[in-house]
Design brief:
The protein is of the alpha+beta class. 36% of the residues lie in helices and 15% in strands. The chain folds into three domains: 11-352, Beta-lactamase; 367-470, no CATH class; 473-609, no CATH class. It is built from 15 helices and 20 strands. The longest helix is centred in the C-terminal third of the chain and has 31 residues, at 510-540. The relative contact order is 0.11.
C-alpha cells in the first residue's frame, strides 16, 4: 500500500488542519489554551492562539502579546549564548569547567566535566529536584548560590551515558555570566533578544511589571484554579517567559544559519554545528547536537527541544531539510494521557511530511534468543542515586518483556490507545515497532546489555540494566510490606474494641504485653513514615515547591518518625521470638507475628537501600 500523499504546507491548509485539531484536543484534555507557531522559508507562515489565557476573564491568546513559559526550551537560549562565547574564543568546549567557575565541581571518575559534556547532557550528574521552584520571592536566590549550595553526585563517568540535567544547563548559564561579565538574563537580552527584536521575552524573575498584563495564567486543569507564577532559581535551565511571535524569530534565526533580518546571532558554521551530530551513535538511535537534540522522523532531519514547568508544556521543532519550524505551547497540564503537543506534531508530520513507504524487513531467527537476553528490569539514566529519590526506581522501574510471538515490549512505550508497543528484531539487537516507526536498540558488550535507546525518546537519556538487588522483587516486597504494616495498624484498635465489647481479657502479661504493644507502635511509625513520604511525593508531582528548603521541616519530621520505626523493628522481631515459646498462643498469632517481623526487616532494608533517612536533605 503506497504512503499517503503529502498535503502542501500552505497557510490555508494548515489553518484548516489546526482549527480542527487543536480546539478539540484542548477541550478534551481540560486545557485552558494553547498557541501554535509555524515558520517556513524564512518567514512566519502561521501563528494563532486557541482557547484562553485566563479562564475567569476569558481573555483570548494573542501570539504577539500573550506570554507563555516554555520551560526547558529556555536551554536553547542558554546553549546559543554559550556558542556565541565559543565563537569569541572565551569558552573552550573541551576545557575543564572549573576553569571558568568561582566554586569547584568535585572530581569524579578521573575525568573533568567540559562544556561539550554539559551541552550534550553527558556530564553524568544525577537528577535534582530540590529548589527547582522557589516558593516565594524571598526564596529566589542568586544563580551562583543556587548552584554552589549543593553539587549533585555523578552517577556516570563523563561522556559515557546521556542523563538529562537541569543543573548542568544552569551551570553553563552561570559560565556565560562569569565569562561575559553580565548577569545571565542581561546577557541574553543584549545578545539574543535585542538583535532579534524579541521585545516580549525575559528571563528576569519575578516577572517585570511591563509583562504582567500579558502573562497567561497557568493551570493544572482549566476547570481548576489558576496557579502562581513559577519562579526558577536555576534560571538558565527553564525561566524563560516569551510570546509565540518572539520565539518565531529565534526559530527563523536558527533555520537561517544564525541570521534574522540582518541580525547575526551566530556564525553560519556555528549554527550548523549546533544542529549537527556531536557523537557517533548506534544505527537507528537519535543523535545529539550541541544543545539541540535530534528528533528525526519520517525521513527528515529534525532538531528541537521540549519544555515543561508544572503548568506550561511546550515543544519546539526545526525541520532542517524543509526549512520549517514548529512551536506549540499549552498553559495547562491537562488530563493524564490527553496532552496536545506530542499527538499534534505527529499529525503535522504525517500530513505534510509523511514517511515514504518502507520495505518490510524480515524478523531475525535470533529474535527469541536476543529478546531473552535483554528482557528484564531497567532504570532510566535520568534519576537520583545518592538520596531519598532513589525510592522512585522501586516504584517506577521499566521492564523489557519477551512476548509469546518473540516480539519485545518496553513498559514505558505505549501507543496512543495506551497499549504496549511491540517490536520485531530486524537486525542484531535492533528492533522495529510492529506497524509503527519507533526503533529500539540495545548496546551490547560481551553478550550483556549495557544500555537501551529508543527513537521515541530524545538522546538525553537511556535505559540501563537494574542490578539484581534493585530488581522487580523490590516492588513486590514493598507492596507486601506496606500491606502487612497497614493491616497490623488497622486491626490493633479493632481487636481492642472487640475485647472491650465482649469483655474478653487481654491474654498477654508483663514483657510479652509490652513487646506486643511496642511492635504495633513501631508498625504505626512505619506506616506514618512511608505514607507521609508517598503523600509528599505524590503531591509534589503537581506542586514542585514542596521540594524546596522551605519544606525541609516536613521531611525531618518524617525522618524522625522513620527512626522510631527503624528502631522499633527490634520489638517486632523480639515479639515474634518471645511468642514462639508461648504454647498458649495459637499458630495464626505466631504466623502474623512472623509476618510483622519480616515486614519490619523489609522496612529496614528500604530505609537503608533507598537512603530514606540521611543526614543531608539534598536531593
Amino acid at each position: 500500500m503506497p504512503a499517503a500523499p503529502a498535503h502542501d504546507l500552505t497557510k490555508v491548509d494548515l489553518e484548516a488542519f489546526l482549527d480542527g485539531f487543536v480546539p478539540y484536543a484542548i477541550g478534551r484534555g481540560d486545557i485552558a489554551g494553547a498557541e501554535v507557531v509555524v515558520v517556513k522559508d524564512g518567514a512566519v507562515l502561521f501563528e494563532k492562539g486557541y482557547g484562553v489565557s485566563d479562564v475567569k476573564t476569558q481573555a483570548k491568546i494573542d501570539p504577539k502579546r500573550t506570554i507563555f513559559r516554555p520551560g526547558s526550551i529556555s536551554k536553547l537560549f542558554t546553549w546559543t549564548s554559550v556558542m556565541q562565547l565559543v565563537e569569541q574564543h572565551k569558552i573552550d568546549l573541551d576545557a575543564d569547567v572549573n576553569t571558568y567557575l568561582d566554586f569547584k565541581i568535585p572530581p569524579a571518575y578521573g575525568k573533568p566535566i567540559t562544556m561539550r559534556l554539559l551541552m550534550t547532557h553527558r556530564a553524568g550528574f544525577e537528577e535534582t529536584i530540590k529548589n527547582l521552584l522557589a516558593v516565594k520571592n524571598s526564596d529566589l536566590v542568586p544563580l551562583r548560590e543556587a548552584l554552589a549550595r549543593w553539587v549533585p553526585e555523578r552517577m556516570f563517568a563523563p561522556g559515557e551515558v546521556p542523563a538529562y540535567s537541569n543543573y548542568g544547563a544552569a551551570l553553563a548559564g552561570y559560565i556565560v555570566q562569569r565569562v561575559s561579565g553580565e548577569p545571565f538574563e542581561e546577557y541574553v537580552e543584549h545578545h539574543i533578544f535585542q538583535p532579534l527584536h524579541m521585545d516580549h521575552s525575559t528571563f528576569r524573575q519575578p516577572l517585570p511589571k511591563q509583562f504582567v498584563p500579558d502573562m497567561s495564567k497557568g493551570y493544572l486543569l482549566a476547570s481548576g484554579d489558576p496557579k502562581p507564577y513559577e519562579m526558577i532559581p536555576m534560571s538558565p535551565a527553564g525561566a524563560l517567559a516569551i510570546t509565540g511571535d518572539d520565539i518565531s524569530r529565534f526559530m527563523l534565526a536558527h533555520l537561517n544559519n544564525g541570521s534574522y533580518e540582518g541580525a547575526q546571532i551566530l556564525k553560519p558554521e556555528t549554527a550548523k554545528m549546533m544542529h549537527g551530530i556531536v557523537y557517533p551513535v548506534p544505527a537507528g538511535t537519535l543523535p545529539m547536537g550541541f544543545g539541540f537534540y535530534h528528533e528525526d522522523r519520517n525521513g527528515h532531519v529534525i532538531v528541537g527541544h521540549g519544555g515543561d514547568t508544572v503548568y506550561f508544556h511546550s515543544d519546539l521543532h526545526l525541520i532542517l531539510d524543509k526549512d520549517v519550524g514548529f512551536y506549540v505551547s499549552q498553559n495547562s497540564q491537562g488530563k493524564p494521557g490527553l496532552g496536545l503537543r506530542g499527538p499534534l506534531f505527529m499529525a503535522f508530520m504525517n500530513r505534510y511530511f509523511p514517511a515514504p513507504k518502507a520495505a518490510v524487513q524480515p524478523t531475525l531467527k535470533s529474535a527469541k534468543h536476543d529478546g531473552g537476553l535483554i528482557a528484564g528490569a531497567y532504570d532510566v539514566s535520568r534519576r537520583s542515586d545518592s538520596n531519598m529519590l532513589r525510592i522512585a526506581a522501586v516504584l517506577g522501574q521499566s521492564k523489557v518483556s519477551l512476548n509469546s510471538d518473540d516480539t519485545i515490549s518496553l513498559s514505558d512505550l505505549n501507543d496512543l490507545a495506551g497499549n504496549p508497543k511491540k517490536f520485531r528484531e530486524v537486525a542484531p539487537f535492533r528492533w522495529q515497532e510492529v506497524n509503527g516507526p519507533t526503533q529500539f536498540i540495545a548496546v551490547m558488550k560481551d553478550g550483556v546489555v549495557q544500555r537501551i535507546y529508543t527513537s521515541d525518546l530524545p538522546p538525553i537519556e537511556a535505559f540501563t540494566p537494574a542490578p539484581a538487588w534493585r530488581g522487580p522483587w523490590n516492588f513486590h516486597l514493598f507492596v507486601a510490606m506496606l500491606a502487612m504494616l497497614a493491616l497490623t495498624v488497622l486491626f490493633w484498635p479493632i481487636k481492642a474494641i472487640l475485647r472491650w465489647r465482649y469483655e474478653a481479657p487481654f491474654m498477654l502479661q508483663g514483657r510479652e504485653a509490652a513487646l506486643y504493644r511496642l511492635s504495633r507502635l513501631a508498625a504505626l511509625f512505619d506506616v506514618a513514615f512511608l505514607g507521609g513520604f508517598l503523600t509528599l511525593f505524590t503531591y509534589g508531582n503537581e506542586h514542585l515547591e514542596v521540594f524546596s528548603s522551605a519544606y525541609d521541616w516536613a521531611f525531618r519530621i518524617l525522618q524522625a518518625i522513620g527512626i522510631l520505626g527503624f528502631v522499633g523493628t527490634i520489638a517486632m522481631v523480639w515479639n515474634f521470638l518471645a511468642g514462639l515459646g508461648n504454647s498458649s498462643r495459637p499458630w495464626w498469632t505466631k504466623l502474623s507475628d512472623l509476618l510483622l517481623a519480616l515486614a519490619g526487616v523489609a522496612f529496614v532494608w528500604f530505609v537503608i537501600a533507598d537512603k530514606l533517612i540521611t543526614l543531608s536533605l539534598n536531593y
